[in-house]
Amino acid sequence: MRTGSEPVTARSALRARFWLSVWGLVWAAFGTAAFALVGQPGWAVACGVLLLLVTLDMTMILRHIRQGPHYQPGRDIPPYQPPDGQPPYPGRRGHRRP
Fold it and tell me: Which pTM value belongs to this model?
């Protein structure tokens, strides 16, 4: 059911993002090593930069996971409800575009 407050109360699938980061980390490390061994320093540096970015993303994901159920909800935590009596976005009471 849509409440109109989805952008405000959206939650990320942190476990899925973590495993995608692991996948990216493995491929970036493999690419860095493979291009360095083949003698392609430009591509090795590009994969190394990607490896750094994936590592930074993974640390942020792990930080959010460790912060607890507010940032990583389980199946037993219900979705947030919008505050009663207030529109989800200020200044847009009942206005809907066709």
Answer: 0.60
Q: What number of other Cβ atoms are within 10 A of residue 21's Cβ?
A: 20
Residue type, 83: P
Give the 3-state secondary structure of residue 47.
helix
Contacts of 82 (CB under 8 A, 6+ apart): 3, 4, 5, 8, 9, 88
For residue 32, give every residue at least 6 positions away whose Cβ sits within 8 Å of its Cβ, in sequence order, or none: 44, 47, 48, 51
From CA 82, how far away is CA 98, in angstroms rounded?
23
Element (H, E) at 32: helix 14-38
Phi-psi label, residue 69: left if phi above 0, alpha if psi -120 to 50, beta otherwise: alpha
Total Cβ atoms within 10 A of residue 78: 7
pLDDT digits (tens, 9 = 90+) for 6-16: 565 566 788 89
